[in-house]
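Service request form, structural biology core

Requester: graduate student, group of Dr. S.
Request type: structure prediction, single chain
Budget code: on file
Notes: please return the result as structure tokens.

Sequence provided:
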Amino acid sequence: MAKYIDVHPENPQPRIIDGVADSIRKGGLIAYPTDSCYALGSRIGNHDGLTRIREIRRLDDRHHFTLMCADFAQLGQLVHIDNRVFRAVKSAVPGAYTFILPGTKEVPRQLLHPKKKTVGVRIPDHVVTQALLASLGEPLLSSTLLLPDEEEPLTQGWEIKERLDHQVDAVLDSGDCGTVPTTVVDFSSGDPEIIRVGAGDPTRFE
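Core staff response, request fulfilled:
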């Protein structure tokens, strides 16, 4: 059964956050809130966590996973980014955007798009997510908690606990979470291509 963890939305308790981070380090898969909607998260390199995310969401190998980063220092280790793209991305973060970029050797091969060798990266603007990333000390493998055949992501921690009780190890709940996923911008060719319009304002990249 999944552990249900209630955390303060503005002042997340360090002891609770550290416990969740420790669970992730030990191979746990969590559901957690972000600045766009709930997401599934596990440690990068956790093959079992990756498999479980694929099973929950029924994803194929062409799906772009997202690496949730605390800041640009982490993001820069995971993707190749030139000066022009750097400036465009820098102006939009932290925020509800996911950027598709060529992955570096730091990214496990199974997380890269099989043909393009790209991966999604983002820096969230959410107190609880940032506290978790700070405690973890490394980026978090992440995927929007959108279940198969459903149009909107799950938004309530208690509902996630009910529906995924035997599929995740913990549900981190900090109150209401949005239903709109991130805006996805593909910079892999050097020029921005909006793949999905979501919570982030897409006009800055049009």
